[in-house]
Amino acid sequence: MRSNPIDGLRNLATALAKDGSDGIHVGHVVIDGGIAGDKVDEAIAGGCASEKIGLDGIAQAYRFLHPQSRSGWHLKMDLPT
After folding, report:
1. Nearest to 76 by CA among 31, 29, 6
2. If both were cysteines, with which of 10, 17, 49, 80 could 26 make a disulfide (CB 3.0 to 4.6 Å apart)?
3. For residues 80 and 32, is the Cβ–Cβ distance under 8 A?
4. Distance from first CA to last CA of the chain, Å, rounded?
5. DSSP string, 45-62
6. What pTM, to 2 d.p., does this model score?
7. Measured distance CA(69)–CA(46) in Å, rounded
């Protein structure tokens, strides 16, 4: 069976989160799709904007993770198109 790099990163994040040392909040964010922006729009002519993840949505996801209390930390977040 072939290993998936995302599975490896997820497992690493899980192990670090379970360790819980020094109060560090570990998060694993998977951005599963194209990110809306000038470079992607130019590279993919005629691509539908709704099929891309907006920068505002990514920023909101990280702002959601940042202020969480230790008792309710989220580890994994998927941002699909």
Report:
1. 29
2. 17
3. yes
4. 28
5. TT--GGGEE-HHHHHHHH
6. 0.68
7. 43
